[in-house]
Design a protein that fits this description.
Elements (H helix, E strand, L loop, with lengths): L13 H10 L11 H14 L4 E5 L2 H10 L6 E6 L3 H4 L4 H6 L2 E5 L8 H7 L10 E8 L10 H13 L3 E5 L3 H8 L3 H4 L7 E5 L9 E5 L6 H11 L8 H11 L3 H20 L6 E2 L7 E5 L5 H7 L3 E4 L4 E5 L6 H18 L2
Helix pairs in contact: 1-11, 2-11, 8-12, 12-14
Bound molecules: pyridoxal-5'-phosphate (PLP).
The site of pyridoxal-5'-phosphate (PLP) has 9 residues, from α3.
C-alpha cells in the first residue's frame, strides 16, 4: 500500500532500522545512561547549541506536554492557531495534563502572527483571567506552510516583550529546516525559541522525538527529568530511541529525507495544478499539498491511494508525502485523479 494520508504511514528508513539492530547488542544501562543516548544527546546538542537540554521521548503529543509543562502553571494559557495539533489532534492532552487553557486563534495559513498574539494578550494581572504565557508555533505547520526566519523572529520578540515564551512544535522541523536551507540552530536558538519538540518519527524514524529546552531560565536540568517521568515519556530501553537520532543526524540523513519529501510535494503540486476541478489551497512549503477536489470522486481516488479529507464542508483534502514517496507513486495517483475528474465533467 502506498499512501498520501500521513507521513506516519511510511516505514522506517533502512539506516535507522540498521542502527536499531546494531544497538541490540549485549546489555546496556537503562533510562538513558547508555552510550547511544550519550551520543544522541551530544549530536542533538550540537545542532541546537551548548545550552540546549535534550530529553528523548516516545511521541509528539508527549513531547508537547512535557515541553510546555516546563513553561506553564495551570492558570496560564497557550496561544496557538486553531489548526495546531495541540488544539485539534491531541484529545485535549495539554488541557487535561497541564490544566492550562489553550486559546486557539483562527489563521488562514495555520501561522500565528504578532498581531494575533497581541489581540489575545489582555487581562494581565487579573486573577479572573487565564494569563497568556506561551505562544505555540508549528514548524512546518499543519497546513504544510512554513514560517520564514523573519516571521519567527517577529513572534519571539513580541512574545518576549509581553513576558511570554515561544514553544515550537517540531514534529516536522526537518521539513521546515531543509526547506529554508538553514540549520536547526538558525531556526530556533538564534532567534529566541524557548523550547521545542524535535521530531524524528515523520522523518524516517520508527518512533523518536525529543524535548529540547533552549532557554536556560526554564531550569530544565532540575525539572524536566521528573516531568518526563511523571508524564510516562521516559523510555527504559532508551538506547533504541537514541540510536534512531544518531542514524538521522550523522551524515545529515534527516536533511536528505526532508528534502526528498518536500520535493515530492512540489512534484505532486506541479502535476495537479492544471487539472480542472482541482484547486490547491495552501502554499506548498513542506511535504504536504492541500487541495479542494470534487467530493464525488473522493472515495474512488482514496481506493487508489489513501488520503484524508481535511475539511468535509469544502472537500479540502490533504496529500502528505514521505521520505520514501516516489515519483511513480505520484504519477499513479495523478493519473487516477485526472481520469476521475474528467469523468465528472469538472
Ligand atoms: C504538528 C504535529 N505535532 C505533533 C504530532 C505528534 O503526534 P503523536 O503524538 O502522534 O506522535 C503530530 C503528528 O501527527 C503533528 O502533526
Amino acid at each position: 500500500m502506498r499512501s498520501l494520508a500521513s507521513d506516519n504511514h511510511s516505514g522506517v528508513h533502512p539506516r535507522v532500522l540498521e542502527a536499531i539492530a546494531a544497538a541490540n547488542a549485549d546489555h546496556a544501562v537503562s533510562y538513558g545512561a547508555d552510550p547511544w543516548t550519550t551520543r544522541a544527546l551530544e549530536l542533538i546538542q550540537g545542532e541546537f547549541g551548548e545550552h540546549a537540554e535534550v530529553f528523548p521521548v516516545f511521541n509528539g503529543t508527549g513531547a508537547n506536554v512535557v515541553g510546555m509543562q516546563s513553561m506553564l502553571r495551570s492558570w496560564e494559557s497557550v496561544i496557538c492557531a486553531t489548526t495546531a495539533h495541540v488544539n485539534v489532534d491531541e484529545a485535549g492532552a495539554p488541557e487535561k495534563l497541564l490544566g492550562s487553557k489553550v486559546i486557539a486563534v483562527p489563521s488562514a495559513d495555520a501561522k500565528i502572527t504578532p498581531e494575533l498574539i497581541r489581540a489575545q494578550h489582555w487581562g494581565i494581572g487579573d486573577f479572573h483571567h487565564a494569563q497568556p504565557r506561551v505562544v505555540l508555533v508549528t514548524q512546518s505547520t499543519e497546513y504544510g506552510t512554513r514560517y520564514s526566519l523573519d516571521e519567527l523572529r517577529a513572534i519571539t520578540s513580541t512574545a518576549h516583550e509581553l513576558d511570554m515564551y515561544v514553544y515550537l512544535d517540531g514534529a516536522r522541523i526537518a521539513n521546515a529546516t531543509a526547506g529554508l536551507g538553514c540549520t536547526f540552530k538558525e531556526m530556533t536558538t538564534d532567534i529566541g525559541i524557548d523550547a521545542l519538540s524535535f521530531g524524528a518519527t515523520k522523518n524516517g524514524a520508527m518512533g523518536a522525538e525529543a524535548v529540547v529546552i533552549l532557554n536556560p531560565a526554564l531550569n530544565a536540568g532540575e525539572t524536566l527529568g521528573y516531568i518526563r517521568k511523571q508524564y510516562m515519556q521516559l523510555a527504559s530501553k532508551m538506547r533504541f530511541v537514541s540510536a534512531q537520532f544518531i542514524a538521522l543526524l550523522e551524515d545529515e540523513l534527516w536533511r536528505a529525507n526532508a528534502e526528498h519529501s518536500n520535493s515530492m510535494a512540489q512534484y505532486l503540486a506541479s502535476k495537479v495544478t492544471s487539472i480542472p476541478g482541482v484547486t490547491i489551497t495552501q502554499a506548498v512549503e513542506a511535504n504536504a499539498v492541500f487541495a479542494i477536489i470534487p467530493a464525488a470522486i473522493t472515495p474512488a481516488l482514496q481506493e487508489v491511494t489513501p488520503f484524508y479529507v481535511w475539511n468535509e464542508a469544502t472537500n479540502e483534502v490533504r496529500w502528505m508525502c514521505s521520505w520514501d514517496t516516489t515519483t511513480a507513486n505520484i504519477d499513479t495517483f495523478v493519473s487516477a485523479l485526472t481520469s476521475l475528474t474528467s469523468g465528472t465533467g469538472a
